[in-house]
Amino acid sequence: MGEKHDNYDITKIYGYQFMDEEEKTFFENYGEALEQQAELIAEQHEIDIEEMEKEYDEILQDMIGEEQEYIVDGALLGCTNGCDIAKYLHYEGELFFSEPKNIDKMSRLTILEDRTEKINGYLIPANVNDSTGGLQDDITQNEKVNILGFGNCRAIPNAADLKEILEQYELTAKTDEIIKAIKEGKGTCYCFMQLNKEGWENLSTAGDYLSGNFQAAGGIDKVFLKPSYQKYNDKEGINMLSMLFCNRLGGIITAKESGQHHFIFNKWIEPDASDPEKVKEYMWNFFRDVGYSKFVVAGILGNVFVETWATFNPEIENGYGNYGLFQWDKDRQANMEKWAEERGLDITLVSTQCQYAYYEIEKGGMINIILDKTDYNFEELQCNSDTLKASTSVTMAAKIFATSFERCYLGYEKIGSVMHYKDLQHGAERIKAANEIYYEMAGFE
């Protein structure tokens, strides 16, 4: 084991000069404990101690300014052995290029099923068992694992003999699959990853390093002032301090962003609101990334096209006071303002309005309505959040969203307890715009 540290060097943390004395004391004491634990874990998993201590330094850095600690679906992960550097490999005389693609997307944690208990009502929390990864666990070859990969693995050198590596790790039976995945740009990490079967490891909480009424900075008290890790759906959650190990190649996996707002809220750079094409691209990516089909996203955007008169202007307001990309009425605007204020968000931004629209879709903002037969609707159509997400065509999604979310009726009638819309405002235009957006955007994925 390495040398024991008397005091953690907090000057390694960006912004340490702005800490008060209590904060400096906390990070010195907790940093010391982390480095001692680094030595134990490195020894247990046969990981280089310098790599382990470097990773712990990065963890402390991540704690500063990370307001939400528990990891959720979409969290950005990183691995100490992952890199985006392209490499050459050779196999039985054939030379081919491993150039990883979509690393940001592949590095996101994916929760494979819906869970009853959620954070803020809609964020799916991860737990210690969300640890399947790479080709070995991707049995269907359809990317149905928690972690896909981190580009190319530093443990596999440039110009390596792939046949020797396959033999070394007893993977010759998967030769064709591995070569195919490398040529597709999935990287050597996806191909050779073997994650710890026991799942994620949670570090000890830091209550022992706090005293008096001291409250740690950067939101870390949300984790460390608890006697144990929060449980979600009866399983221990994971947070910014949790670690997962690649037993085959020695990498250490941790979260770089919790996912609580970076993925759902800020993955895509805020678009220039004066450029309709940039806003449209942002919205397409946002709603696709939260899991909606191309049909559904095109249906949503076709409605936004009509609602904003093709401007995609997030600050547009009509003569009735309806506001934004989705033309929320005064009551729904007030609800959005309250929701945004609680989260410190600006309602004039495209990102905030997308987030709130997603929240409404998932949390009861779409009311149950039947759209009656019209010139473009050949039979009654049940419209609500569930039927939207199950749409089997762009046209269907556009009609359901217009009816249940936008509520842009031309005549209505309540029959029993069910509301019926006779027709839609600009219904044909919404459908046309949605289909045009589908053919424009869907082919670029």
What does this entry look like structurally?
36% of the residues lie in helices and 10% in strands. The chain has helices at residues 21-45, 49-63, 103-106, 134-137, 162-168, 175-183, 187-192, 221-224, 276-289, 294-307, 330-343, 350-362, 385-389, 394-406, 427-441; strands at residues 76-79, 82-83, 87-91, 94-98, 152-153, 160-161, 231-232, 235-236, 244-245, 252-257, 369-371, 381-383, 412-415, 418-421. The chain has a 4-stranded mixed β-sheet. Strands 1-10-9 form a 3-stranded antiparallel β-sheet, covered by helices on one side. Strands 4-3-6 form a 3-stranded mixed β-sheet. A hairpin with a 2-residue loop joins strand 7 and strand 8. The chain is globular and about 70 Å long. The two termini are 49 Å apart. Mean pLDDT is 80; it is low at 1-6, 63-68, 205-227 and 262-267.
Mean pLDDT: 80
Number of helices: 15
**Low-confidence runs of at least 5 consecutive residues:** 1-6, 63-68, 205-227, 262-267
Give the N-terminus to C-terminus distance in angstroms.
49 Å
Question: What's the shape?
Answer: globular
Q: Order of strands across the biggest sheet?
A: 12-11-14-13
Strand runs, count: 14
Could you estimate the helical fraction of the residues in percent? 25-40%
Please tell me how large the radius of gyration is.
25 Å
Percent strand equals: 5-15%
- Structural class comes to alpha+beta
What's the order of the H and E elements?
HHEEEEHHEEHHHHEEEEHHHHEEHHEEH
**Main sheet overview:** 4 strands, mixed
Question: Which keywords apply here?
Answer:
single chain, 445 residues, alpha+beta, four-stranded mixed beta sheet, three-stranded antiparallel beta sheet, 15 helices, globular, disordered N terminus
